[in-house]
Automatic annotation (TrEMBL), chains A, B:
Gene: rnz
UniProt xrefs under SUPFAM superfamilies: Metallo-hydrolase/oxidoreductase
EC number: 3.1.26.11
Annotated catalysed reactions: Endonucleolytic cleavage of RNA, removing extra 3' nucleotides from tRNA precursor, generating 3' termini of tRNAs. A 3'-hydroxy group is left at the tRNA terminus and a 5'-phosphoryl group is left at the trailer molecule
Entry binding sites for Zn(2+) 1: 63, 65, 141, 212
InterPro entries cross-referenced by the UniProt entry: RibonucZ/Hydroxyglut_hydro (IPR036866), RNase_Z/BN (IPR013471)
Family: Belongs to the RNase Z family.
Highest rank taxon of the organism: Bacteria
Keywords linked to the UniProt accession: Endonuclease, Hydrolase, Metal-binding, Nuclease, tRNA processing, Zinc
Purpose: Zinc phosphodiesterase, which displays some tRNA 3'-processing endonuclease activity. Probably involved in tRNA maturation, by removing a 3'-trailer from precursor tRNA.
Name recorded for this polypeptide: Ribonuclease Z
Residues at the active site: 67 (proton acceptor)
């Protein structure tokens, strides 16, 4: 499980940051990549990564502002040029489907694969399958805007090989059955239970993605115990009033949510072009005073999210 | 009068070429810039030039394929962020307005200036004013596609200062009147005619822009005596059959039009991603065998179009 930022800017592209998009890479887990928001030129950013559009199977769209959706028609069209592409599902607010369908219709784009739209309406479990759940909650923006929480299901504990050796249980095909938690009869007639030879269940990872919103209680609910929280940070720590009036958040509000909800790592995203270079670093420092594990996200930044309890 | 290529690729963006767009800079003439086609990320390309979106007053769209229009909503939205922007006029095929209006409506983009759409329908003079005329003709593409011919009106000849000196006419305010071709009474009562002291009328410049099309007679008509012809060149010289079946042109077809119609300079544009580096140069060499003044257009290439008869 990996995250790569494709655009970390706000409102309009700058030379430093493209408009919003990030990729949740589930290649080891599902051989799939999920995108969150698709600002203009997201496909151009992807050209500079190792992401193949064929692998993008789901797109989640937080809200319909142009800097979050104007890259969608072009990305869908280009995905069509790749051979043997499967269906794609797009989760987004009302109106998104009309926008995409109109763009494809007017441009006479024949997409070579099925596109399914799922309209976000309120707080809901919007996807469950393949060992993952995705929840949304409505946030507080000028237009309907949704936050996302991706939960990986917990996995069975690891097989305790040392303990098996203590019991003189020889390596072989029965290891597979024990690992699956099954009961197995040994050659001497004894029956052993795989569950006795498994370490503790390993909790799945949690990623929370909060694009455009004012500070609002739904964010804490989506972020509870997240391994990684990606949170918009359109304004500086001392601009809470401005953030409120523009329906956005400050870096300190993001850090406060992270600190109060057992978050592992916070990434500040959706950085205004008013914060260039060192000024953007200032947002990071302000947030770190509240929550140390904060990083400023930059375009193409890349992180691996390790399983809980595994070596980092 | 200058041209800058913003995207010289075809179909989808590549690392080398963005999708279609070019700027006709009329800064000295009108303090305006006109765009021809607006593929996705045209505004991103513009970030890397000295073009200010405020100066873009007209956008001409050849046809509605995605690689020619998907940058339009984002560019219009970003133009809005610049202070004190005037109206913009968009010339394009039926359907373009619906696409743009839907994108702006769904994204709740409030554009700060009026947008006027003028629908292209057939062969027509679509603009006349400020010393310029723009003509369109329908080309032969899979969807309705239009070529453009921009004609600058001819300008009066230069004032022949040496001749005035021969006639002992002193420099002064009357020079302005003579330059305007007026009659002037001198102090000695003699009347002289400005027209006798003007050099030959200087013909205006002509720029022809031919995006996606098969070889078709309308191209010659649009290109007659053009100073600069920008012509799509999606296929190589020996792929005329392929070009025909995909409704595109070859580099040699472009060069033949240029040779047979008194064109000054030909730029090969709309280069397929199949032609990388040296292969693209091959298109140029093939065309140069037919018409020597051919150049392969690359993103950000820039050329000044001098007045006819002026020093180059
Ligand atoms: Zn935004
Ligand atoms: Zn094209």
């Amino acid at each position: 499980m990996e995250i790569q930022f494709l655009g970390t800017g706000a409102g309009q592209p700058s030379k430093q940051r493209n408009v919003a998009s990030l990729a949740l890479k589930l290649l080891d887990e599902l051989n799939e990549i999920w995108l969150f928001d698709v600002g203009e030129a997201t496909q151009h950013q992807i050209l500079r990564t190792n992401i193949r559009l064929r692998k993008v199977t789901k797109i989640f769209v937080s809200h319909n502002h142009g800097d979050h959706i104007f890259g969608l028609p072009g990305l869908l069209a280009t995905r069509s040029f790749q051979g043997d592409v499967g269906p794609i599902t797009i989760y987004g607010p009302a109106g998104l489907e009309q926008y995409v369908r109109t763009a494809l219709k007017v441009s006479k784009t024949k997409v070579s694969y099925p596109i399914k739209f799922i309209e976000l309406t309120g707080d809901a479990l919007i996807y469950k399958g393949q060992g993952f759940k995705v929840y949304t909650k409505k946030l507080d923006h000028r237009v309907a805007s949704y936050g996302f929480r991706v939960e990986e299901e917990s996995r069975p504990g690891e097989l305790l090989v040392d303990k098996l050796a203590q019991y003189h249980i020889p390596n072989g095909p029965i290891y597979g059955k024990l690992k699956a938690g099954e009961k197995v009869e040994l050659e001497d007639g004894n029956i052993i239970d795989g569950k006795d030879f498994l370490g503790p269940e390993r909790p799945g990872r949690i990623v929370s993605i909060i694009y455009d919103t004012r500070s609002t209680p739904a964010i804490a609910e989506l972020s509870k115990n997240a391994d990684v929280l990606v949170h918009e940070s359109t304004f500086g720590g001392n601009e809470a009033k401005l953030a409120y009036s523009y329906y956005h958040s400050t870096c300190v509000q993001a850090a406060t949510v992270a600190r109060d909800n057992g978050v592992g790592m916070l990434y500040l995203d959706h950085i205004s072009a008013r914060y260039l270079g060192n000024d953007a670093k200032k947002l990071e420092r302000q947030a770190q005073k509240v929550f140390e594990n904060t990083r400023l996200a930059n375009d193409f930044d890349y992180m691996v999210i390790p399983m809980k309890g595994s070596e980092k």
